[in-house]
């Protein structure tokens, strides 16, 4: 009986290995290698204290029905050198998908269109229409925040079945950068304090509310932050350099949905509205007041902001990351009964070089749960918490959380994809030795399982597989 059981287990292990070969995931197939390309945004020119916040339509982007695996970006100068945050602060960059009518010609990325000429193709998030609808985007943390999507998942784009007739898929880029060379108050400039920009009306000309002290309404395109008297600095050409990785789409890739949650979300939804503010659900930004000595002793001088959210659809979390500004000390997304879905912590720089700038958030920690380990139910009540230090006042801070969710988990045949991927690149005797090693591993696993089952029987337990 023992020989029979051991032989059966060994045969099962061999069959698992053999059956996996024709069903390995897309990223490891010979004809579906990961491709990569680097692109540049249109040039923008900044001088000390000046601001760039423009929207560029129809940017360079991979074509076809593909799966995005990675997206990274940073600000560089004319020579291709990375620009440190203490010179040009990258408030944020966003990439948004849309559909463009084929019979309309775009010019210089800035031509005005009728609303019917474009159709938004946002993510699966729950904020007001047109708010936080980007597919990709980060801020000062962009250089040291992981963005790769693990196998066998990817963000599906270019699916012909999703593109309306008479339109084509295109991409919009928003770059918000602030030149802080010679700034009188560098942190105040990056936090868009209205007094430093001498702004009292919005970009559209509407008066700002009296209690609005700083944020996006005060550092729009072509505004100017206050610099030290007599400071001289040249205007220079800059670019956002973005690098992408992708694979050709096939049926073995599992698509993921993008959700972006906002800790300022009040839950209000006004039909047809596209703006943001106190009356429109997701407000995007908020202020942190400095703490008194009493606050410090009682609450530890920490601002804790929470909001409740409802997940519109079910799925498995495969990636998570938060977005915070200077002063942030971490954010957590909780599920039902307080279970932690993902916690994301900031990494502050300690030097002067690009990617390690002292006092700036240069990276955010990310979550990559084991496939199937974290599931969110449709209609589940989530809680988003964003924590900031109150050592000083902060304006225009954000508390966003970005997660990728899949409708399904990988099938069991994908579990051995890594060994198979290694075998792909082996030939001759090396390949043969690898095969032998895999079979040896299968034998070891089978013997171990058999021994444990036998031990269980001897100790009086009834094994599940008996």
TrEMBL record:
Keyword annotations from UniProtKB, A to Z: Membrane, Signal, Transmembrane, Transmembrane helix
Official protein name in the record: Stress up-regulated Nod 19
Organism of this sequence: Dovyalis caffra
InterPro entries referenced in this protein's UniProt entry, alphabetically: Stress_up-reg_Nod19
Signal peptide: 1-26
Residues spanning the membrane: 431-449
Superkingdom field: Eukaryota
Pfam families found in the cross-reference section: SURNod19 (PF07712)
